[in-house]
Write a structure and sequence with these properties.
Blueprint lengths: L4 E4 L1 H17 L3 H14 L1 H4 L5 E2 L2 E5 L5 E7 L3 E9 L4 H7 L9
Amino acid sequence: MSGRSIRLLDRALDDLLAGRDFYESLQPGIGAYFWDSLLSDIESLHIHAGVHERHFGFYRMLAKRFPYAVFYELSAQYVTIVAALPLRRSPGWLFEQFRNRSGEDA
């Protein structure tokens, strides 16, 4: 176990809420499933933090059940979730999402 606490930045929480709302608008109940699935993936970082490839300057963990990625940073004390973004968007859109995002914004 990594021994690090997991921090979720406000903008990452906004990403998760937007994803939940999007999926809920497609079919009632899917938004809650999205939420639970992504939180489960994030909780797995207690064990797996740091094993993922880096993209856009952050570690990137692919979600298990949805086309999303969780981007995070590591410090001695924390796994900081910086973003949770849909991968079906263009690479340019993804790049723009990372302007001024870092774990220091907590």
